[in-house]
Here is the input.
Amino acid sequence: MSESSNNLLRPWRRLDSREIFTNHWMRVQIDRVELPDGRPYDYTVIHRFADGVAALVFDDQNRLLMEREYRYPVNEVIWQLPGGLVDPGEELLPAMQRELAEETGYVAEEWEYLGQFWDNPALSAMKIHLFV
Here is the structure.
């Protein structure tokens, strides 16, 4: 393994952290870190206050249900899986059932939890819990 690829696997050391913004959805901070090669770097981190849920919903013809929604950061109407944020104190499956009904009007009788993944680990530690 080369030195540069080895550095990709080594943790960074946080030197300092400062909050630059917060609201009821998230907190944004700038961390001053030391990279594995010793260089300092300012890294932006977004802390979400809730996990998300998303569903793979198939109809009787095995077609995947997608929804269209305008998303401001990309200034486009995009296709995406139904889902959303888990409310405080809410269990994952009821959150997924609520989001599916709110966003699509559909309900599903059978659910299976597939696991979780990081939404965008380059910016945030938010997890998405995936159901089918």
Remarks:
- The mean pLDDT is 94.
